[in-house]
Amino acid sequence: MPDSSFDIAIVGAGPAGLAAALRLHQRGFRPRIYETVAELKPLGVGIDVKVYGTKELDELGLLQEFRAISVDARESIFYNKYGQEIYAELCGVHMGYLYEQRFVHRGYLQMLLYRTVLDRLGPDSVVHGVRCLGYTNHDDRVTLDLVDQAGERSRVTADLAIAADGIKSAVRQQMHPDHAEPVYSDITMWRGTTLMEPFGSGGTILHIGAPQSSSMIVYPIANDFEGTGKVLVNWVVEATRDESVEDWNQRGTVDEIMHYYDQCDIVHLDVQTMLRNAREVYLFPLIRHEPLETWTDGRMILIGDAAHAMYPRGGNGACQAIVDGSALAEKLATMDDVPAALRAFEAQRLKAVNGIVMAHRGEGYEVIRRMVEDRTGGERFTDIEDVLPLAEADAIFSKYHALVGQPRPGFEAGDTTGYRTEHAATGN
Asked: What is the pTM of this model?
């Protein structure tokens, strides 16, 4: 059991910092979180929590609460820009995993973690309204330089500090000044939500379009939203746009993206109506943060987006951030030397997560829609098996799932895990 006087400071009360605090508390530590905003609110749109992310939440004792605020993912279906079906696979327990894949509003998940931190660690475990400006390492301690909303400066010294301060991390900037300036990828995401009738199985995620021009992901994140009997649906559209502002809260409209889907006819969904009825639309440019060669400096360590910011594709950013806290807590609880524990954590996580960062930059399994567009010359196909055989698509998906740490059940034995639904298009 760790010494109760061992001080851990966490910078940032996003999912990464909150989950890390809960994991550390399970191991006998009592960290304190320092958060920039004066009051946390359930902001953001949807995230896709993979099976290993659900496992982490179960191990935190939050599975039932998580289920109550999220939607069980049942199937994932891929379409070209005309709405012709390319490929489908089951999700989570429906594929044979031990845990569910679930869709959730990012803000609702963050608030669940936040309430749990206050309940388990106490009301003084989160200090609001202070921003971290930087840090200073000492022989056996580390000092954080903080500033509050009135501009008053202060310092906090701890045995260990964890930077979970996101994509604009001041700690990352100090630790890696050569990586301080991110590069715009020429792709912008339009992220929105729409209140609508359920579609598909009620737990269906749709992947639509040709990535050469525009790509769309759609999935439900809340059933019977606010007692309306309707579902709150999260959608994300990628397309090119001339900008470089890295801001999750930049407002946008659907006017620039509607035309990409004016030929799209999907049995599950009226895409145009969904876009027109959006409750909110945010813009976010895809920014390239190059993988780091280290996340540690003395007794300071980066986790989550501060360590491995990745394109928000494939649902692994938040999940990998949550895994960080679990792995770090295990090393700190089993090793007496703090810098050595941090290096062991980095040795376990850095190479694998950097691989996921680069895979997301290369589209991951979404590449099948690009392949179909290229192989058909952008035209409709007659039989998808002549364009992208099921066995070829299966191999692509199995490789990607293994990369992110969730190998497909049974595929190593030669089982076919992908399929085409009864609505698969054959050129009709």
From this structure: 0.90
